[in-house]
Design a protein that fits this description.
about 210 residues; Rossmann fold; 7-stranded mixed β-sheet; binds S-adenosylmethionine
Length: about 210
């Protein structure tokens, strides 16, 4: 029999066993008075659920995984990985997303190391400390494509084996996929997640050659 899981209070929800806040949640309302994310990090984006589903089906997260989430926002995917035992850092250019990440990580009993930085500021050596990079809905402007392609190339030159990015299928993401084919093995999958509801998009699974 499946377990009936109740959310502890209003405006919280579960996705793939991660407890998350809706934008109407009382703590979000309070945090918004002091921290207003301004680069689209104002909610959990559904591409995070695509990542969670992909990780589950492909047994991607291990206790030994060292994960960096790029453009982590409120950190839903990071929290999922940390709950599987991975050591996780969340990077975002917008310092105002981290209080939301911190609250959600605490609600789920995990710790995520916050890194406030833009993609171009991440040095190869720093990237080499991770074995997997992940990102959900992070390639939404044309100028982000080049920044992220360069980052992925830097990361792979420094020993990162795998980069997994979920996206609704915007053209900057599709351009990123094409560019990465010149230095990595790239597979793109149409994917859907079914928790907290049905959502369709794409996963780019980029492996070092
Ligand atoms: C659409 S949100 C997605 C957030 C989160 N991944 C999710 O799925 O809920 C994009 C995130 O990328 C961050 N971001 C945008 N440009 C960035 C850059 N140049 N370097 C680092 N983070 C960036 C934003 O601050 C925002 O949190």
């Amino acid at each position: 029999m499946p377990e009936l899981i109740e959310v502890p209070e209003e405006n919280l929800f579960y996705a793939y066993d991660v407890l998350l806040m809706e934008t109407k949640h009382r703590l979000v309302k309070k945090l918004k008075k002091y921290y207003e994310p301004n680069v689209h990090g104002h909610k959990t984006w559904s591409s995070s659920f695509l990542l969670m589903d992909y990780f589950l089906h492909n047994n991607v997260m291990k206790r030994s995984s060292k994960v960096l989430e790029l453009g982590c926002g409120w950190g839903a995917a990071s929290i999922f990985c940390a709950k599987k035992g991975a050591k996780v850092s969340g990077l975002d250019i917008d310092e105002n997303v981290f209080p939301y990440l911190e609250v959600q990580a605490t609600m789920n009993g995990v710790e995520i190391t916050p890194i406030q930085k833009g993609y171009e500021k991440l040095k190869g050596k720093e990237l080499g400390e991770y074995n997997i990079l992940i990102g959900a809905d992070i390639c939404f402007w044309d100028e982000l494509t080049e920044l992220l392609v360069k980052l992925i190339r830097r990361a792979m030159r420094n020993g990162v084996k795998r980069v997994i990015i979920a996206d609704p299928g915007r053209s900057p993401f599709l351009d990123l996929v094409e560019s990465c084919k010149s230095f990595a093995k790239v597979s793109v999958h149409e994917w859907y997640s079914s928790d907290p509801e049905m959502y369709e998009g794409y996963i780019a699974d980029i492996k070092a050659i």
